Inverse folding.
């Protein structure tokens, strides 16, 4: 296992405890640190320093926190490598990164791992109705009913709603689509 990669992973995860609210100076500082970690992980991968299932998993999770579709595609590829090498937690991450990749393109997610704010509440991003709970289970993803309940739990917990003015375009487009179907 790559010790530097492990430390980058641990720093990434520690920053997710008490995650700052979107739009605050603390949030933007976190996003800058996330970017620096992705740059360093890319250097580690390029130099051949990512070799074990755990290395690929840790690198994937760091890329999963990216803003660009290419970073999310990288997260998916790395998570798949980790899962193929037998690292069980990577199965969920492979599904989640694939879902996020689809979501960033405005498409329905396959497994149902991604939750988004819509300005009023948090909701499960649109899900492909052809995906079965058996497929979800194969990738360590809870059933669709459990994921829908998770969205309701987030709302009951009173998660603060981030400002929607700065939302990415794919989310703004989805909010307009959801609003047009709710009326």
């Amino acid at each position: 296992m790559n010790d530097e990669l492990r430390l980058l992973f641990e720093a990434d995860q520690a920053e997710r405890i008490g995650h700052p609210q979107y739009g605050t100076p603390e949030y933007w500082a976190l996003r800058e640190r996330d970017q620096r970690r992705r740059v360093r992980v890319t250097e580690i991968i390029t130099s051949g320093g990512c070799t074990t299932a755990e290395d690929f998993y840790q690198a994937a999770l760091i890329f999963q926190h990216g803003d660009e579709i290419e970073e999310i595609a990288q997260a998916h590829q790395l998570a798949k490598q980790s899962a193929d090498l037998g690292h069980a937690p990577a199965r969920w991450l492979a599904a989640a990164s694939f879902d996020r990749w689809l979501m960033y393109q405005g498409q329905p997610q396959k497994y149902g791992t991604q939750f988004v704010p819509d300005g009023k509440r948090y909701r499960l991003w649109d899900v492909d109705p052809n995906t079965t709970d058996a497929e979800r289970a194969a990738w360590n993803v809870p059933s669709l009913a459990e994921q829908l309940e998770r969205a309701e739990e987030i709302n009951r917990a009173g998660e603060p709603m981030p400002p929607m003015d700065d939302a990415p375009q794919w989310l703004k487009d989805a909010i307009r689509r959801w609003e047009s179907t709710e009326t």
Notes: Residues 77 and 88 are 15 Å apart (CA to CA). The chain is about 60% helix and 5% strand. The mean pLDDT is 94. Helices lie at 3-15, 25-46, 53-64, 69-84, 89-104, 133-138, 144-156, 169-182.
